[in-house]
Amino acid sequence: VIGNKDVELNAGDLTVAVHGPDNYAHVDASVYSGEVDAAAFGEEHGGLFRSFHREGAGPYRLHAHVGAGQLTLE
After folding, report:
1. Which residues make Cβ contacts (< 8 Å) with residue 50, sequence separation at least 6?
2. Using CA of residue 74, residue 58, residue 55, residue 61, what is the dihedral sign?
């Protein structure tokens, strides 16, 4: 899916295809417990209450959150 994305998962592994990081004006990704692996944006964080935010010039917004598990943005 190309466009705005707003996805959340209570527990488990969530993988989101971003189709190019320059397509996003606002990105926020977080986990309460686990890992954020956002290689597409050059970010990787693990542990408790991990997150990252990014502002860009693209037309789309991306919000992704996992309660417990792994969040992958590729």
Report:
1. 30, 31, 34, 35, 36
2. negative
